[in-house]
Amino acid sequence: MFTPKSPSIAVLFLCAVTQWASAEDNRAHISIRGIYGGVPTELLVQGTLRDYGVNAIFMGSGGINAERVAVLKKQGAKIFAEFNTMHVATYLKDHADAAPVGVDGKVCPAPHGWQGNCPTHPGYRRFRMDAFRRVLRDFEIDGIWLDYHHSHASWERAVPDMPDTCFCERCVAQFSRETKTPLPDEGTPQLAHTILEIHRDSWGQWRCDVFTDWVREFRSIIDETRPRALLGTFHCPWTDAEFDGALRNKLAIDLRAQAKYIDVFSIMPYHARFGHASDPSWISRQTKWLGDYLGVNGEPGERHRIWPIVQLSDWGESVSSNQVRSIMDHGTRRPATGVMVFNWGSLKKQMGKVDEMAKYYREIQP
């Protein structure tokens, strides 16, 4: 009579790996399946958001109104507002002194049309904080995401344009005072050269600290106004080494410092836009780097969460329907615990991609 032997360690290990892979393929860790770009009314004509596997909508704070909130609440969807922090160009029409100043002492032109504002302008900061508070006060949203929270630059492309700013008298004086850095009595071009050549490290850290302090104040407003709402951020998908450390040195984004106040990091790995059109795996590589950098594994109960926003719409480079599943696959790998697609304004004209997105979302929804 044949008596089966006990399973070997190798077999047990193989079973464990297989079970882990099955769970990972199921994407049970993904709690948010979102669409960015407004209410997808075209989908609601034919059914519910759940029919498409969608449970969250991200939209610009200026597009939120009571009717849209009611529609989405009825659908059982979470509502997240996108909030533009540093790129409200219209503010400059009546406040020219809020324009960023370049190394030549002149107002820095908007790179590729992306107009930023000076981060130390007190009037502009009050303007944005007041608007932030109104959104949270007036609408029952589940969270609010900072957008364009970086220095005057154009980075959402394969070849970025990131001028050195801001060297207005206010910024230079504040830098000197807060870092206790004595500066010579020189014109702006000479001062900018001195700062970038001799004090680059302290200048870079100070700039990061200015932007982080904005995040601290945003957090305090949430805690006062709608404490259960999440604070998220849409941010550049580069590692800390890419483009000579431009994440900090040029864009003034200190992710670890901001993590004290941020709940959700929504990295923006637009693979086609950033020159990786044929390599969707770039999405999961960048997300993994972020998790490693912040110590986020994508496990239940973690303080921080990572919810990437992935590119399905055409922007710069086109994205084909047969690539959608691979994009969604890489966008939902740990440490991600949520994902959203960019963006509805374009996707609603490309329903083949929407169908592929919905198929994937339905497969992974509980």
The total beta strand count reads 9
Largest sheet, if any?
9 strands, parallel
- Given helix and strand content, the structural type is alpha/beta
Contiguous low-pLDDT stretches (5 residues minimum) are: 1-23
**Helical run tally:** 13
SSE order, one letter for each helix or strand: HEHEHEHEHHHEHHEHEEHEHH
Question: Compute the gyration radius: what is it?
Answer: 23 Å
- End-to-end Cα distance, whole Å, is 46 Å
Descriptive overview:
The chain has 366 residues and is an alpha/beta fold. It has a domain at 29-84 and 263-366. 40% of the residues lie in helices and 11% in strands. It contains 13 helices and 9 strands. It has helices at 9-26, 41-44, 66-74, 122-138, 169-179, 188-198, 200-225, 242-249, 255-258, 281-294, 324-331, 344-347, 351-364; strands at 32-36, 56-60, 78-84, 143-147, 230-235, 264-267, 305-306, 309-311, 338-342. A 9-stranded parallel β-sheet has the order 7-6-5-4-3-2-1-9-8. It is globular, with a radius of gyration of 23 Å.
Sum up the structure in keywords:
366 residues; alpha/beta; 9-stranded parallel β-sheet; 13 helices; 9 strands; globular; disordered N terminus
Provide a compact summary of the structure.
The chain is 40% helix and 11% strand. It has 366 residues and is α/β, with parallel strands linked by helices.
